[in-house]
Design a protein that fits this description.
Helix 2 crosses helix 6 and helix 4 runs parallel beside helix 5. The protein has one domain: 3-Layer(bba) Sandwich (Glucose Oxidase, domain 1). Strands 1, 2, 3, 4, 6, 8, 10, 13 and 14 form a nine-stranded mixed beta sheet that branches. A three-stranded parallel beta sheet has the order 5-7-9. Strands 11-12 form a two-stranded antiparallel sheet. With 227 residues, it is an alpha/beta fold. It contains seven helices and 14 strands. Strand 13 and strand 14 form a beta hairpin.
Length: 227
């Protein structure tokens, strides 16, 4: 028999990206960030903006593990929230009840939150739109959660198939959400220059009438068979 766990286990964030690092990723399309990460890093495709017009954000991850049908950890995360943070709430993909609504998001906004992301469900869509805080979720349901715990705040979590830790950079737009691990922030920023150049070059060629890219022709040369 094990002892009952504490209601909340927490770790105070000990690392944080610099303002310059955040500024250099601000406004970057999530597709560009993924390319700079080597093709991965986006959360499950079901996690999308609840209000499509309120999608773009870039901030610092504050993860919490709430578990299904419980949002005590989300409330507890407010104690550790710093301006510019993104609450990333893992709910184990549970969609039968919401993990937050407009009032909790309003509190987070008042404390300086940049966005809210969950692999669970949320409710009060009209209220969320009025709050104006970018909110990403895997679903919407009116069902309400309990506040019983146990939960984790500030410790690593897995959400939408991607590991997230405090101090990671989280970027979102209409396409979805991408996590940039703290240890790879400098690498991603450096690679983004080449990604932007390649995208701009191909975009200009498409607008000029490009049909079949050269790299496709080269890849397929001598490797196609007519039947």
């Amino acid at each position: 028999m094990i002892e009952d766990p504490p209601l909340i286990t927490f770790r105070r964030p000990s690392r944080r990206p610099t303002p310059d690092e955040l500024a250099r990723l601000e406004g970057t399309p999530t597709g560009f960030v993924v390319d700079a990460l080597g093709g991965r890093g986006a959360l499950d495709a079901r996690i999308k903006p609840v209000v499509p017009g309120q999608a773009a954000f870039c901030g610092v991850a504050l993860p919490c593990q709430a578990g299904p049908s419980d949002n005590l950890a989300v409330f507890a995360s407010l104690q550790f929230l710093q301006p510019g943070d993104v609450i990333v709430a893992a709910a184990d993909g549970h969609l039968a009840s919401s993990i937050t609504g407009d009032l909790l998001l309003g509190m987070a906004r008042n404390l300086g939150a940049r966005a809210f992301v969950t692999d669970g469900a949320v409710r009060d869509v009209a209220g969320i739109e009025a709050v104006g805080l970018p909110c990403f979720a895997a679903g919407v349901t009116p069902n309400s959660p309990a506040r019983n715990g146990p939960g984790l705040v500030g410790l690593p979590a897995v959400i939408g198939g991607v590991a997230v830790a405090a101090g990671d950079i989280v970027v979102g737009d209409a396409d979805g959400v991408v996590v940039v691990p703290y240890e790879r922030i400098g690498e991603v920023i450096e690679r983004l220059a080449a990604v932007r150049r390649a995208e701009a070059d191909l975009d200009s060629k498409v607008k000029a009438g490009l049909g079949l890219p050269d790299f496709v022709a080269r890849t397929l040369e001598g490797r196609m068979r007519e039947v």
